[in-house]
Amino acid sequence: MDKSFNNTDLEDYKESGVLKGKVALVTGGSSGIGRAVSIAYAKEGAKVVIGYLDDEESANETIKVIEKYGGEARALNADLSTSDNCNRLVQFAMDEFGQLDVVVNNAGFQYPQTSPLDISDEQLLKTFQIKVFAMFYVTRAALPHLKKGSRIINTASINAYQGHSDLIDYAGANGAIVSLTRSLARRLVDQDIAVNGIAPGPIWTPLITKTFEDINPDVAEDFGKDVPVGRPGQPYELAKAFVFLADPQNSYMTGQFLHINGGGYMSS
C-alpha cells in the first residue's frame, strides 16, 4: 500500500459554493480527516477555524493550502480534554469571524491493547476525554452562538457498530458518540439545528501510523485489506460526506450516521 496520505489538499475537488458565508469549526483539523474536511469547507466558501494539538507545522500547512485556494482560516492549539480549552476554542472562532454555523467534532485518540487488563485508568479516561467529553464540551460552548440552520457533525467509527478486540475503550467511546449524537439531534431539532455524524471504516491517516506502527511494523501493508474494497480509504474520500451534512439544503436529516467504509458493513 502507498504509505503516503494521498490528495489531502483536494486538488481535484469540484466545489459548488454551498457553504459560502458560513464559518466552520473543525477539531482535529490539522491532519488526516480533519484536514481534508477543513480544505473542502474552505473550497465550498466557508471560513474555517482549526483546533489542533501541538502540531503547529501541520496546522500551518493546512492553512497554506486553504489560502492557496483563496480561502481564509485560523488555527488554535488547544488540549480539548478540558472544558476550559473547549470554551477557549469556540470563543476564538467567534473573536476571529464573529459567527459560527458548522461544528465538526473530529478530534481523536486511540491506543491498542490486546487485553482489557492492560487498559489503565489513565488510558480509559483519556480516550473518553478526547472522543466524548471534548465533543460535548465544544458543542455546549458552541450552542449559544448557533442559529437556525446550523449543523453539528460528529466523527465516530465503524468500531462503534462492530467493535474491535484491540481497541475496546476506543470502540466504547465511539458507541457513546452515536448515542450522544442522536440525543442531541432530538433535543435540538426544534431549533432547526441538525446533528449528524460519520462513522468511517479504515482510513489511512497519521493517527494510524502513530497508533499501530510500534506494535505492527507491517501496518502500512495490512491496514484496510479486510474490507471488500481491499484497501483503506483516504481522507479526501470522506470530504464530500462532511460537506453534504453541512449543506444548509440538507434540511430533513438529523440523528443519522453516514457509513463510509469500503463495504465493511456493520454486521461483518
Automatic annotation (TrEMBL):
<dbReference type="InterPro" id="IPR002347">
    <property type="entry name" value="SDR_fam"/>
</dbReference>
<dbReference type="InterPro" id="IPR036291">
    <property type="entry name" value="NAD(P)-bd_dom_sf"/>
</dbReference>
<comment type="similarity">
    <text>Belongs to the short-chain dehydrogenases/reductases (SDR) family.</text>
</comment>
<keyword id="KW-0560">Oxidoreductase</keyword>
<dbReference type="GO" id="GO:0008206">
    <property type="term" value="P:bile acid metabolic process"/>
</dbReference>
<dbReference type="GO" id="GO:0016614">
    <property type="term" value="F:oxidoreductase activity, acting on CH-OH group of donors"/>
</dbReference>
<dbReference type="Pfam" id="PF13561">
    <property type="entry name" value="adh_short_C2"/>
</dbReference>
<protein>
    <submittedName>
        <fullName>NAD(P)-dependent dehydrogenase (Short-subunit alcohol dehydrogenase family)</fullName>
    </submittedName>
</protein>
